[in-house]
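Memo to structure team: turn this sequence into structure tokens by end of day. - J.P.
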Amino acid sequence: MARIAGVDLPKNERIVIGLTRIYGIGKTLSEKILNEAQIDTNIRVKDMSDDMVLKIRNILDRDYKVEGEKKKEVSLNIKRLLEIGSYRGTRHKMGLPVRGQRTCTNARTRKGPKKVAIKKKGGK
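Reply from structure team:
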């Protein structure tokens, strides 16, 4: 089991897919990192040598923000939007979609489950 950037990569996955388990790395960036380290993208995580893992770690430490650093950067960006009172910041604050999606229908991921109003029977 390879451990890179504080994340245990699954043994049986190809390394190009395994690297995407790290926050801040997608498939394209994963391929770019492996090309830079001159590692075959089809190799399995369990078949990697310690030297290969060390190359990947060094590249990540030198060039990219991942995991904690990346999460901190994203949260600071959102905090900045809230402080300046931008439209995007207010959407983040209200828990609504930020990038112009419709909210009349859909948007359940951001809004959460439906809230159903309960009517009381005729009051005298």
